[in-house]
Structure formats: C-alpha cells, structure tokens
Amino acid sequence: MRKFKTESQKLLDLMINSIYTNREIFLRELVSNGSDAVDKLYLKSLTDSDAVVAKEALGISITPNKDARTITISDTGIGMTKDELDKNLSTIAHSGSQEFKEANAKEQGKDIDIIGQFGVGFYSAFMVAKNVKVISRAFGSDEAWMWESSGAEGYEIKPATKDTWGTDVILTLKDDTADDKYSEFLEDWRIKGLVKKYSNYVRYPIRLIESKEEDEPGKPKTEVINSMVPIWKRKKSEVSDEDYAEFFKSNFHETEGPLRTISVHAEGALSYDALLFIPAKTAWNYYDREFKKGLALYSSGVMIMEKCEELLPDCFGFVKGVVDSQDLSLNISRETLQHNNQLKVIARRLEKKIKSELVALRDDDRTAYEAFFEQFGRAFKFGIYSSFGEKKELLEDLLMFYSARKQKLITLAEYIEDAPQDQKSIYYAAGNDLDRVSKLPMVTTVLAKGYDVLLCTMDVDEFCLMGLREYYGKQFRNVSSGNLDVETEDEIDAAEALDTENAELFTALKDALDGKIDKVRSSTRITDAPACLVSDGPLSLEMERILANEPGADPNMFKAVHILELSPSHPVFAALQAAQEAGDGDKIARYAKLLYNQARLIEGLPIEDPIAFARDIAALMQ
Ligand code: ADP
Predict the structure, then answer these.
(1) How far away, in angstroms, is 88 Cα from ligand 1 center?
(2) Within a domain: residue 340?
(3) Within a domain: residue 287?
(4) Mean pLDDT of the region 404-409
C-alpha cells in the first residue's frame, strides 16, 4: 500500500467525510478530466504524424451498473502510464486543489460549502464512492495499470488489462443511508440530468451506456447525451427564435420566451461567446433580497459556475444567459473571481451590449419598452442611486418618468427636447399617488408657466434624481422645495417685502404650530390654494416620509426643513392679517392648524388629529 502525500491526504479526508450536498459535481469533474485527456490526445494527433487518431474514436462514456453498484466513466483520451497514475492521482496536482486547500484552512471547521466553488478534480469521486479504481493505458503503450483506493489509508497500483488506450474510472458507490441515496447516481435519468446541467457542451460525445434496455441481446443501448455544439457558439442568423426561446425556457425556468436575445462572439486577445436574454417579466422574487443575479459561466464548454454575479451589474441583474470563454481557467474560485481581469473586461463589454439593446428596444418598439420599464425601471433608478451616480451615464437614457403635460411616460431627452429655450431646470413633483401629485397646486403653477413637470411616484424616484444631479446641464428641481426659479426679480422682491411686513403674523402662526413648522413665508408658487407645505435644502418632505418608513429607521435622523407657505393673493391671507391687526390670537392659532392640516392633506400626508381638524372646520361652518 502506498501513502498519499500529506496535502492530498487532507483533501481526501474532506471529500470522504463530506457532508456537502452538492456532491453531484463529481460527475462534472470526472467528465472534465476525461475531456481534457481527449483534448490532449486530439492535439497530439493533429501535431504528431505518428499519433493519428480518427476524431470518431474520441469520446467519453458513462456506464452505470446497478448490480455491481458501480458507475464507470471512460474516455479514449491520452491515458496514463504507471508513473503518471502514481504521480497525478496521489498528489494535489492542480492549482484549483491548492486554492481549495488554502481556503479550507481559513474556513476550517465552518462549513464544507466551499467545495462546489472549486475545481476539486479527481478526489471529488470520494464524495460518492467507497472505492475508486482507475484503469489506464497510455496512448502508444500496450500495458495497462490499475490504481485503486478505498480512501485515506492509501492506494495501490497493479498491472491490468485494457483493450484500447484511455482511462476507465470505476466508482463503487457508498452505501445508501436514510438521508443520502447514492444509488440515485446509477439511474439513467439522473446521469442524463447531470450531463445536461454541467457538461452538455463538452466538445466530444458523452455516451450513456444504458443499464436497462438492450437494442440487441448482448449489446447495450448507447445514447449521446450532450449536445456538443452550444447554442451560444452559433451565429444569431443560424438559430431560430423558437430555438432561443426553448433554450431560455428550459435553462432559466421561464414560462415565456425572452423579450430580446443578445448573441456576442468576441475574438482577439480575449475570446468569448455570450448569449444573453432580456426577459419580458420580472422573476417573482426579483425585488427580494434573496434574488441572486448572474450569468452561467463556461470555460471551453464546461460549466464552472451556474450564476457568476461578477458578470452583471446590479441594475441589469434581470438579464439571464451564458458566457463561455476558452481563456478562463477552470478553477476560478470566488476569491480569484473578484480579481479576474478577463471577467471584468467581459462584464464591461456585456454591460454596453445590454444597454444598446435596450436603447434599440426603446427606439424601435416604444410600447414594448414601456411595458419592460414598468417591470424593470425600478432597477435602473435604484442603480443610479445606489451607485452614487457612478452608473449615471449607463442608465440615464434608459429612464422614463411620467409627464404632467403629456400624461404619459417620457425620457429625460424628450423632456429637454420639448422644453422652452430659457428653461433652466427640470421640474419634478414627488408623492405616492399619480393623480394627487398631478393636481398639486405648485405643479399647476409650473405647468402654467409653460414648463413640464415629471411626476415621481416611485419611492426611489427622487433618490435617483439626487444621484443624477443634472441632465445635460439642467438641474433637477422639486416644485415643493427651495425656490422654483421661475419668479421674476419683481416677484422675488415683492415676496421679500411681504415677509418683512407680516413678520409678526408669521411668527404667531409658527408658534401656534408648536414646532411642527420651521418657518412660515409667503409663496410665489401657489395662487389658488391658501397654503402649501414645502421644504428647503437637500431633503424633501417626500424623501423624509420614505426614509422614516424604512424598517428600523430613526425618524429623527432624516429631517427635512418644513415650511408653510401662504398665498398672499388668497382671501385667507387677508383674513389672517385682519385677525393679527385685531389681536385675535385664538383665531390665528385655529387658522394656523387648519391651514397646516389642509396643506398636509394636499401633500398626501396624514394629519395628526383628524377629530380636532373636523371640529375646527365644523366650527367655521356654523
Ligand atoms: P486537474 O484535472 O484539475 O489537473 P485532478 O485531480 O482532477 O486535477 O487530476 C490530476 C491529474 O490527473 C490531471 O491533471 C491529469 O494529468 C490526470 N488525470 C486525471 N484524470 C485523467 C484521465 N481521465 N485521463 C488522463 N489523465 C487524467
């Protein structure tokens, strides 16, 4: 009995005692090894005239045997000599295992979950097998050798017989337990499913030598179970929409075909193929925290990751698809991913592709784009806000807002196109109800000046505009905050004069409101309504409301400056002035509350004491 090298021993221990649920990946690992071995032989046959092999002779087969409880993975690859068997299968050979070992040292005692993230290679066989035999005959040699191990104690190498070159890996499966049904791996459907899932696009045929039916007595039925030519390697013009739809549905659990399909074939310093889909509908859990974005990542036809997050920015997290590159190592781990420049380059290019596809959709089929935006627009808006504006350039032209003037969704570019030459700002109003926001008195005022107003009813809207800051030199301006910048010099002077003249009245009103209001002033933004609530500074009243509703929010943390503005041309203003002159403090106090509550109602904000409000109104009516 020979002993494993210390490092291999540790890895092996882990595999044998693995509680890892994703142990099905053993098949992917062994098939990949077989495919690599075939690759090596194929390459040799192309470059060495003494080693001519017919392409048809190259392949991999999987043979389950229920009676013997074995599953055999065979390849007609390059094979291994006795020395190679000893060297390759008894030490940690490749970098993936090395990384795995390092990560495992860090994670020691925590969870074995890291296994699935690494190309753990040959030893993964021990996650499902109690005994592993490898019978191999190197190409060009006529002797065969068998490597055998039942686990950590060690392994043996003995002479063996084998008709052709290549390698057979024979796994005797572990006994079933109540929780773990290893015998499942002997079922044809299970094997087919695993090959479809992980190895469908291996370039050589993978044949299943079926356990049940036999075509002719003595000759088992064989079936090629991988598709070999991946759909993403084919040109878009060669694939039908139905084929794409089928692939999309079967691979991504979708019920409908995609809205758009993007096919990319890049060659050069970094070669890759990508097939991306823009779904028509959001996944049911798309806006959940649990939703996991990502594209399937393949390296030379072998799936190495089901969802590689790094390939998609959050704002395009709804995109589904596949990236395949021969320039990526099979052993990409979570840690190395973040530093992988090739992946970053691919991700950047795909981001641009997705954007231009969406721009095309916007311009070619507005109705479809609007329907799409209803579903996913929130992700763009959130993307701008959460990236602190970093994704502004990528996303700003994809945004749509509801136009108060046109009563439909428009883009920011369309807003600017239709704006009068002298318009300095892009106006918007925020609130949670479209109908109510559209009727806000300040919206009416701005519209009357000839300027459109964007009606922001999504909670993320105003935060998105804050992230954008400006669009083509025009600042975003909330019609309920600061000044409107539509006033003439004279109007501003007049308002200031009014504030000075009525300073005592305004102070009395403010005092009556008991700290609810920071300031009372005359308004230039409303005429028909007697009063409105506005704010000054970066935080609007609507933002304050949204932030206060965030789970766990401290309501005192985000405070807007609350201002009660009074319309000087409204008869109520004159009534207030008269009460002030008559020294009727009670009336002023009552009116202050009424005006304040009215203004809150107009804004869609709740009032603190509706009973007192109703009583005060009733008193006025008597
Ligand atoms: P990796 O395949 O990532 O290098 P493994 O532990 O899976 O790591 O395998 C170790 C080595 O054993 C391989 O690099 C290869 O040289 C050899 N090997 C494994 N399986 C086969 C096979 N089916 N045919 C030929 N060589 C093999």
Answers:
(1) 6
(2) yes
(3) yes
(4) 96
Measure 48 CA to ligand 1 centroid, in angstroms.
22
**177 and 268 inside one domain:** no
Residue nearest to atom 13 of ligand 1 (CA): 88
Atom of ligand 1 nearest to the CA of 121: 7
Q: Are 54 and 200 in the same domain?
A: yes
My answer on whether 478 and 567 are in the same domain is no
User: Residue 395 falls within a domain, yes or no?
Assistant: no
Question: Are 47 and 183 found together in one domain?
Answer: yes
pLDDT in tens, 274-305: 999 999 987 767 777 778 899 999 887 777 77
Q: Which residues line the pocket of ligand 1, CB cutoff 6 A?
A: 33-34, 37, 75, 77-78, 80, 88-89, 93-94, 96, 119, 121-122, 167
Q: What are phi and psi of 292, to 5 degrees?
A: -115, 120
Last residue of a domain, one of 175, 206, 224: 224
Which protein residue's CA is at the shortest distance from atom 4 of ligand 1? 94
Mind listing the pLDDT tens digit for each residue in 27-81? 988 998 898 899 888 878 877 778 788 888 899 999 999 999 999 999 999 999 9
**Residue 96 pLDDT more than 80?**
no
Same domain, 349 and 427: no
219 pLDDT above the threshold of 80: no
Q: What percent of the chain has pLDDT over 70?
A: 91
The per-residue pLDDT for 209 is: 94
> Is 391 part of any domain?
no
How large is the average pLDDT for residues 505-530? 93
| CA of residue 21 to ligand 1 center, whole Å | 24
Give the sheet arrangement for strand 561-566, strand by strand: 519-522, 561-566, 531-536
In the chain, pLDDT over 90 holds for what percent of residues?
Answer: 59
Choose the final residue of a domain: 468, 486, 504: 486
Question: How many other CB atoms are there within 10 angstroms of residue 539's CB atom?
Answer: 17
Asked if residues 182 and 175 have their Cβ atoms less than 8 Å apart, the reply is: yes
C-alpha 100 to ligand 1 mean position (Å): 16
The rounded mean pLDDT for the chain is 88
Six-digit token pair at 8? 């291999």
| Confidence at residue 110, expressed as pLDDT on a 0 to 100 scale | 47
The CATH number of the domain where 276 resides is what?
3.30.230.80
Longest dimension (CA), the chain: 118
Instruction: Choose one of 12, 14, 33, 35 to mutate for the ligand 1 pocket test, by most ligand atoms within 8 angstroms of C-beta.
Output: 33
Report the DSSP pairing between strands 453-456 and 425-430: parallel
Burial class (CB in 10 A: 0-12, 13-18, 19+), 458: middle
Assign residue 441 the CATH number of its domain: 3.40.50.11260
How far is the centre of ligand 1, averaged over its atoms, from the C-alpha of 140 (Å)?
18
Domain match, 31 and 180 both: yes
* The total number of structural domains that make up the chain: 4
Which stretches of 310-389 are assigned E, i.e. beta strand? 320-324
**pTM for the model:** 0.71
- 3-class SS of residue 136: strand
> Which domain does 502 fall in, by range?
489-622
Pocket test of ligand 1: the residue of 4, 36, 74, 124 to mutate, having most ligand atoms within 8 Å of its CB, is: 36
Point out the ligand 1 atom lying closest to the alpha carbon of residue 34. 23
Return d(Cα 381, Cα 306) in angstroms, integer: 27
Residue 195 and residue 306 in one domain:
no
- 159: helix, coil or strand? strand
Question: Which pLDDT tens digit goes with each residue over 478-498?
Answer: 999 988 888 888 988 999 999
Assess whether 188 and 52 both reside in one domain.
yes
- Structure confidence at residue 99 (pLDDT): 56
Q: Looking at residue 501, which CATH number applies to its domain?
A: 1.20.120.790
